[in-house]
Amino acid sequence: MYHIPNEGKRSKATGGRLKAQGLKPGVPDVCLPTAHGGYIGLYIEMKVKPNRPTENQKNWLRALRAAGHLTAVAYDWEEAKNLIEDYLKLPPTIAKGESK
Question: Assuming Cys at both sites, which of 14, 53, 69, 88 could form a disulfide with 57, CB separation 3.0 to 4.6 Å?
Answer without folding.
Answer: 53
